[in-house]
Amino acid sequence: MFMAGTTVCLAPVSWVVRAAARRASGGGGSRVATRRLFDGRHRSWRPESPAARGPMQIHGARKATQQLAQRGSPARSTAMAASSEVKDIHTKESTKTLLKNEALYEYMLNTMVYPRENEHLRELRLITEQHDYGFMLSPPDEEQLLSLLLKVMGARNTIEVGVFTGGSVLATALAIPDDGKIVAIDVSREYFDIGRPVIEKAGVAHKVDFREGPALNILDDLLADEGNEGKYDFAFVDADKGNYGNYHEQLLRLVRVGGVLAYDNTLWGGSVALPDDTPLTEGDREIRAAFRAFNAKIAADARVEPVQLPVADGITLCRRVV
């Protein structure tokens, strides 16, 4: 969670094969690799040994320097991956941005994002970045975008599918009114409990209705109550990618006409635009295929007015019109 991030152009192949050093999962040569597995209902992240996971995936190089924790700004350098090496698209050592210019991304973070970042969001971000799966957190530029959108909309009731440590939940809770509510859904409470103390410290825990379990089932439970249809102003999805299309059908009934549905990671490190013969791990190839199908579905869906932004890992916003 993930995710979410402001971009000018998509990464060409030369950038996608580059490694950048900032976020994601496990550090150093002995780190445990991760891979997203689908069970048809919800996501689960399971550690695998390097030997078991097969080839490495697309982004990700060694960290050249440590993050400057006080400023929140990562100091990093990039390196070209060996031509025979296939890197993870998302790891603890990859930068979750589609900008091809690292210096520009740093400029944006240091000029417009970090100086305005809420102290509690910053605290939770720094805590999460130390976690092996820290790359799942929505980056601060994406949280800033969603926070502004929620305020412009006057959103009060929201749904979040995929919570992780609660970074985007906290950003939402800080943006909606005091009597607003977030139905926050995740298959496991374990990671949310990492961020829960920060959410409580921020004084917004009363806005969060955390529900543990497979999201499809929980959304069905919400739909069983007719009073929930069209009740919600906004929904954010950062969960198992293979089910995005199913979540879309459920959320279209829960979010009101004029409301917004937001889907994270829809450009998946730029891989959706790469040639079919690009070397990818099995996991990334599966996710890329899922996103290509989902993006085509949204592009053809007359029930929504969509826009796809190259922010962070790609975020698709859909305004419900029917």
From TrEMBL:
Sample GO molecular function, one term: metal ion binding
Keywords, alphabetical: Metal-binding, Methyltransferase, S-adenosyl-L-methionine, Signal, Transferase
UniProt feature, compositional bias: Basic and acidic residues: 36-46
Region of interest: Disordered: 26-59, 68-87
PANTHER family: O-METHYLTRANSFERASE-RELATED, TRICIN SYNTHASE 2
Family note: Belongs to the class I-like SAM-binding methyltransferase superfamily. Cation-dependent O-methyltransferase family.
Protein name: Caffeoyl-CoA O-methyltransferase
Organism: Urochloa decumbens
Signal peptide: 1-21
GO BP: any one term: methylation
